[in-house]
Write a structure and sequence with these properties.
The complex is a heterodimer. By secondary structure, chain A is α/β, with parallel strands linked by helices. Chain A has eleven helices and 15 strands. In chain A, helix 3 (101-111) crosses helix 4, helix 3 packs parallel to helix 5 (146-158) and helix 4 (120-130) crosses helix 5 (146-158). Chain A is elongated, with a radius of gyration of 24 Å. Chain B is mainly alpha-helical. Chain B has helices at 2-21, 23-47, 57-63, 66-76, 80-99, 101-106, 112-146, 161-191, 196-215, 245-269; strands at 151-152, 158-159. Chain B has a two-stranded antiparallel ribbon with strand order 1-2. In chain B, strand 1 and strand 2 (158-159) form a beta hairpin. The radius of gyration of chain B is 20 Å and the shape is globular. Classes of the chains: A alpha/beta, B mainly alpha. Chain A binds chain B through residues 55, 58-62, 79-80, 83-84, 86, 88, 90-99, 106-115, 117, 156, and chain B through 6-8, 10-11, 13-14, 18, 22-23, 99-101, 103-111, 114, 271, 273-275. Bound molecules: adenosine-5'-triphosphate and magnesium ion (MG). The site of magnesium ion has 4 residues of chain A, from helix 1.
């Protein structure tokens, strides 16, 4: 499943990871594999269990069952050894409002016993610059806008040498310009060799930067792989316009498709992995004497695939 | 390994820095400092220039400023001091949780035991600083408003000025130690909730309730176990020679509370899901 990164040593691997809150099953038997160097989009509608999974990955919550390996070590047992190499943004940024942006980052860095106090000021400064907050660094955080706080959160994740970034909805609250900048930032970090695990309920937000994605729905992992793999398994459709709907249906059925005539001169059929190529379908129709007035193949965008997988809708379980 | 030590102390230094740069901390100190100031002014206004001395502390203050610090502590021990400790201890973990900064500290990462230790150390420093502010203001205001003389103790013995201040320091130490158990209880309660104000109220209520229980003769079997039992026991430290019993009993009792509630806090917090 790892596509471009057939790495035997994934950065994140979970096995049958589950979390229950009382009677509510927030995460069910999730087997997640994030290869090294990937930009991994973790998708799913609201309440599908993304943040809960991330909390377990980072040792904030204990799994009800299942195992987690983060950078090759078991979590939460190895948290103190692993987390210095992981930058995280979980469920939105959070800071001391009366401290400046810079002071907040310095405080967090001081909390990490493995961080070097001699380089602290420089690392914090560089991280602030990277997210475009250098000028606002001395302002108290209560005077920050939501987008500025979000950037500060990302700066916090970047303030030390990291191997993995876990970003939970990093573009939440950002303006389009900010969203674009975060996308560029993620791309440039990935270019520098980091693995980035980024959650979102908006596919469009991650589609352009991700190499891999996984889709959560109702606590389950319903798909994961490279973007091409995800698109590839997606079902498309062939659409035949003809007066001869019955004959067309018979031909399509012979080719292993399940035709659905709609009674208005159109036959649709969902394609699968064993569907013959479109040109063969057309020639089969013509040689069988079906009067074809129009023929088209409708591919499935990742967006549609996402909707198929998650059952879409705004009803949150 | 001096560097390793410096790093381990890095977080404590940073959290103490945070404590002392918060406006709230200084507001609490100001409120405490107001106690001896108000008492001093009240005594000064009501009695005019120093007159004879009576048995009560307040009367002694009028005659000798040395006693103002003692009176300030005595008045603050039942409620004001515990309230300030409740604010700081109640906020320690619950405040981080409610702000969401707890998840970022833990992913920094800080070990959960380490975080509790640092937070408790901050509470201890606050207790010491609060008592110091109270006693220090008392000494200064007493000096300014009433002047100081050698103190005549309850026993009739007379203490030199240096010895008097040493007694005040001893009393301040007793009061600071008295607050350590409450601080540990507060730390534990703070791990139970994400609502700091609720925890602060709970701590304050506990302190008052324990003192009420301590005043009911029907509950005298319980008294030796109450963390408030020796809170005002420092009068013994004004005897000649010093009667150490209540100081020592108090220290042992408070240490017990720190151990028990420290263990409870760890037991609760070590595996708690941080979902705030
Ligand atoms: N502390 C909690 N107590 C009980 N249930 C919870 C708790 N936190 C989350 N849940 C439940 O777990 C499920 C998953 O929540 P989670 O926050 O992981 O979703 P999410 O995918 O991050 O959603 P969003 O896109 O809205 O951030 C939800 O059904 C939610 O109701
Ligand atoms: Mg979420």
């Amino acid at each position: 499943m790892n596509g471009a990164f057939p790495d035997a040593d994934p950065v994140i691997r979970t096995r049958r990871l589950s979390k229950r809150f009382g009677r509510r099953q927030a995460v069910r038997e999730v087997d997640l594999t994030v290869p090294r160097g990937a930009v991994f989009g973790f998708l799913g509608p609201n309440g599908s269990g993304k943040t809960t999974t991330i909390r377990m990955l980072l040792g904030l919550a204990t799994p009800t069952s299942g195992t987690i390996s983060l950078l090759g070590e078991p979590m939460p047992q190895a948290a103190l050894r692993v987390l210095p190499r992981v930058g995280a943004l979980v469920e939105g940024p959070a800071f001391y409002p009366y401290l400046s942006g810079r002071a907040n980052l310095v405080r967090l860095d001081a909390a990490d016993r493995t961080s070097d106090p001699r380089t602290r000021a420089r690392r914090v400064e560089e991280a602030l610059e990277r997210v475009g907050l250098a000028r606002a660094a001395r302002l108290a955080v209560h005077a920050y806008s939501l987008g500025m706080k979000q950037r500060l959160g990302i700066a916090g994740a970047l303030a030390a040498e990291r191997e993995l970034l876990v970003l939970d909805e990093p573009t939440n609250g950002l303006d389009p310009q900010g969203t674009r900048e975060v996308r560029h930032l993620v791309a440039s970090l990935a270019g520098a060799g980091l693995t980035v695990f980024v959650s979102s309920h908006l596919l469009s937000e991650v589609e352009q930067v991700c190499t891999h994605a996984a889709v959560m729905s109702n606590g389950r992992l319903v798909a994961q792989g490279t973007l091409d793999e995800l698109r590839g398994t997606a079902a498309g459709r062939v659409v035949v316009h003809t007066r001869d709907t019955e004959a067309a249906g018979r031909v399509l059925a012979r080719l292993g498709l399940s035709p659905m005539p709609d009674g208005t001169g159109t036959v649709r059929a969902t394609t699968g992995p064993h569907t013959p190529p479109p040109e063969d379908i057309v020639s089969a129709l013509v040689t069988s004497g079906v009067g074809v007035r129009g023929f088209s193949v409708e591919g499935t965008s990742l967006e549609e695939r996402f909707v198929q997988l998650t059952g879409e809708g705004f009803d949150i379980a | 390994m001096p560097e390793r030590t410096a790093r381990a102390g890095g977080m404590l230094a940073s959290e103490l820095h945070l404590l002392f740069r918060r406006r709230r901390t200084w507001a609490l100190f100001a409120a405490l400092a107001a106690v001896p100031v108000l008492i001093g002014l009240a005594v000064r206004v009501s009695t005019g220039p120093p007159r004879g001395r009576g048995p009560a502390f307040l009367d002694q203050v009028a005659g000798n400023g040395v006693f103002l610090a003692v009176v300030g502590l005595l008045v603050s021990v039942p409620l004001f001091l515990p309230l300030t400790v409740a604010v700081v201890a109640g906020d320690s973990i619950a405040g981080e949780a409610s702000q969401g900064t707890l998840r970022y500290l833990l992913t920094a990462p800080v070990s959960r035991a380490g975080l509790l230790l640092v937070k408790y150390a901050v509470i201890v420093v606050f207790c010491a600083a609060a008592v110091l502010v109270l006693a220090g203001t008392g000494v200064l205001v007493g000096l300014v408003l009433f002047g100081v003389q050698p103190a005549v103790l309850l026993s009739g013995d007379t203490l030199g000025l240096g010895a008097s201040y040493a007694r005040i320091a001893l009393i301040a130490a007793h009061v600071a130690v008295s607050l350590l158990g409450l601080g540990a209880i507060g730390l534990f309660l703070s791990t139970l909730s994400d609502v700091p104000v609720g925890v602060m109220a709970a701590i304050a209520v506990l302190a008052v309730a324990a003192q009420i229980a301590g005043s009911l003769p029907q509950l005298d079997w319980l008294h030796p176990w109450l963390f408030t039992e020796h809170w005002t026991g420092f009068v013994d430290l004004l005897r000649q020679p010093v009667l150490w019993d209540s100081f020592v009993d108090n220290a042992v009792l408070q240490a017990g509370y720190v151990l028990v509630f420290g263990a409870l806090a760890y037991g609760r917090f070590a595996t708690k899901d941080v979902l705030s």
